[in-house]
């Protein structure tokens, strides 16, 4: 299922921020201009390095949000309380600022577009970022495989990529699962993802779908248990976890 990942670039490449887009009160998308970017596969990530004038440097990994094969490099950063890198990227970064990236990286948590089986995406919080790359790739290529997303988030104000996901929600591709404060239009009571959510909104396991799950560790472990109980083949499930202090 993950045969076509782009070869990693292990050298640091200079990058210039070309656009800064606020996604929520705490999250920002940065578009980067990178010379000689080899392209990436949806689900991959990059290492990002910032270097201060005194020579101090910090490196953090960030998932790529842009469509694979597009040549566009975008990351979405959610502020980590007390995080020096995420705070700069979400609050201080401006077009024209310079940094370095290394990648693309990752060969396992990637969607191979040569596969045609259905794909179920399940994201919690900022775990939506690599899944958004998959959705954008699917849309850009008008891919024939069925793809759906279950997006778990506290409330609508925490939503990333609102215009795009609202459009996909209207088409029936995306379902929002609010854990704290649902919208007025939501008929589902607030709460964590449940087996009933999968029965109502996930792709039927009889269709032998692949699944990609990304989010906080506790969320991912819960979803994996639910998916297997629902009938998904464990060999067709890919998961990416992050915990406190993560840069996803």
From TrEMBL:
FAD-binding FR-type domain: residues covered: 10-111
One Pfam family it belongs to: FAD_binding_6
Cofactor: FAD
Source domain of life: Bacteria
Keywords: 2Fe-2S, Iron, Iron-sulfur, Metal-binding
SUPFAM superfamilies: Ferredoxin reductase-like, C-terminal NADP-linked domain (SSF52343), Riboflavin synthase domain-like (SSF63380)
Listed name of the protein: FAD-binding oxidoreductase
Organism expressing this protein natively: Nocardioides astragali
The organism's taxonomic lineage, starting at the top: Bacteria, Bacillati, Actinomycetota, Actinomycetes, Propionibacteriales
